[in-house]
């Protein structure tokens, strides 16, 4: 009997264990993608457009069947039309995705169709790495050690001949890009090409240069990982046997992605609420004009404005700058992290619930960071340290292109020294 391959965050044909399973019996597979309004609606133009491009890539190669609507209805309908008795997926461990899959599982079972979960978007599935007593890790470093020790499978084998089935399709959804937004190429081949070039040209210097937003020294793989155009296991396999510090540091960064997925799996409430609940008692300001200035890159702090404008122009922001702008919103403007996280998820092309919400919570001091809240980033010294010549600032804040000192704030909306003291005073009040 034919099977359905329901693609979600695994938009690739190679190293795809769920797809291999789908093709394993008689090789006839209906390739399905469901545009779920619950996910499509809240996404911003960058992620929608990128997803559309990635789906077009799969469609060109295998003739994707796209349906729009509630997956509980659409997956059952597509499976029944194809006469399939199995629907194959990579397991989803996020709060929305896992609940959705349970409902789809039950709806399929009513028609004697099985939902088969194989693999996940991670090298090690969330929930697998635990402390000796079976409880989850709260802190990254011991998680990383245990994750390395646990290990992961080799990439899956090649996909043989597949008889791709076809059916009525609503077509790949179109989303126009707003003016001034320029996104990277989407699709499996683009992901492989970028990884190959990065490994060849830049990986060796990754540990030394990854904190420098002026150098473009990071891999930009986040968007490809987000949509599963390449699997982290493929990257880890290529890193195997590479002895340099660049490869080791890169492995550690991939482990942050796995750690945050694990934290979210154990604490699904942390997608919205404080991981450390006492932070809900802190005094915060009601967001107003200052939040708007932050969003639009008009705070007067050059590195903050550069980052916020890079986000709007490219759907991406350098990791160091993500930390600087997040710290600024929470500790200089005293705005709750959720407002910033929402703005990021709207514009980031790599927007990912686990990495984003926990990147925010870490920087805000209410997440998994073992260091205390009173580390407050100074946006000017951070800028001088990580963008020493101001090239990053000059690129994204054109009015400072010819400034003698591009790091010097211009009409700043707050006084950083005063707000630092204020942030610490607010923190003291919740510690008592
Ligand atoms: C406030 C904030 C919000 C963030 N939001 C997201 C998000 O929505 N989606 C997202 O993928 N990453 C997010 N990150 C993590 C990180 O900034 C990006 O993964 C990274 O900048 C992507 O660029 P790159 O692929 O060139 O990274 P590289 O430096 O080349 O890193 C390689 C890969 O490792 C992983 N990685 C690296 N750093 C982190 C990290 N701190 N946390 C989790 N994974 C990491 C990513 O998958 C990345 O692609 C956030 C960080 C912060 C501080």
Automatic annotation (TrEMBL):
One of its GO terms (biological process) is response to light stimulus. Keywords: Chromophore, FAD, Flavoprotein. Its cofactor is FAD. Gene3D superfamilies: 1.25.40.80, DNA Cyclobutane Dipyrimidine Photolyase, subunit A, domain 3 (1.10.579.10), HUPs (3.40.50.620). The keyword Flavoprotein applies. Residues 1-123 form the Photolyase/cryptochrome alpha/beta domain. Binds 1 FAD per subunit. GO terms for molecular function: deoxyribodipyrimidine photo-lyase activity; DNA binding; FAD binding. FAD binds at residues 206, 218-222, 250, 253-260, 350-352. Belongs to the DNA photolyase family. This is Deoxyribodipyrimidine photo-lyase. It comes from Nocardioides islandensis. The lineage of its organism: Bacteria, Bacillati, Actinomycetota, Actinomycetes, Propionibacteriales.
